[in-house]
Write a structure and sequence with these properties.
Length: 365
Amino acid sequence: MQTYLLSQQFNAGYLAENSTACPANATICNGTSCVLLEDNFNETLSVVLSAVLTIMLALVMFSMGCNVELQKFWAHIKRPWGIFVGFLCQFGIMPLTAFLLSLAFNVLPIQAVVVMIMGCCPGGTASNVIAYWVDGDMDLSISMTTCSTVLAMGMMPLCLFIYTKMWTDSDAIVLPYDSIGISLVALVIPVSFGMYVNHKWPSKAKIILKIGSIVGAVLIVLIAVVGGILYKGSWIISPKLWIIGTIFPAAGYSLGFFLARIAGLAWHRCRTVSLETGMQNTQLCSTIVQLSFSPEQLELMFTFPLIYSIFQLLFALLILAGYRVYRRQRVKTKTDVEKTEEKDDSKSASSQAQINGGFVSNETK
């Protein structure tokens, strides 16, 4: 962020009571007007936290890689039906949903563009962590995130060109290919190391996976909280964008799940595709917005990626909670059925023994 100078006026009373008219950190003093350097605390904090979160994210992706088997991962690449379904959701459903929501709520052109940018972004790495917690297909999850990030280099310009014509010139939107490349490297390298550990030391990989999954869940919440603190001055935004930010991720999760089910994927893969569809790379969206628009334009829509990030996390947690309740109920029902069958078998054996004068055959034991 470019450093700029802030001018601060001091009243006559302040000057009369203080021997020094301007603060010690003032660079220029002219009468009652002092020029101060901008407080860069938030900027410095943002850089430090970004570095820490990037390192933590790399460690989390390393742990997620410990749950990926090379043979199964390669099978998804060779027979990419699941990846293809995810591709249709990521670059078909999401941009179209963003377009329809922008039209339905009749938002400002600049606000419609940021909604479209969000809809055209590839999947985020947080989906891999949530996919693990809902017993999804981790091999499919990692392969979908990787492929969507690679394909985003071509599909994002294409989708933005198709959908943003009525609001702006698509050439005005700056796509940070370096950021996309960094996201790809930060995903592929840690996951590759994790896959190697899983291949060589499976028992140690399970321990790393358990620790990493917990750290990943904490990290997702931490990112949302940190974002809210750093950008607390930008929360004044159109109510329409709040509504879109609420509906959009829910629509992504739902439509992704239903399309995967229609395509004939197994239930655990449907959950995986759903999460990969609804969870977008919001950091990439924020970067594109900052590079493409003026400060005046940013005031109208800069917070939207953060709003989407918060609600995509909330809905993901609801999905996780619902799945955990369902699984617990299913296990309980299955246990009750097994106990009932055992009692029935025991009663049957007892009755048979009485009929046979106390003799119990080996078949009933």
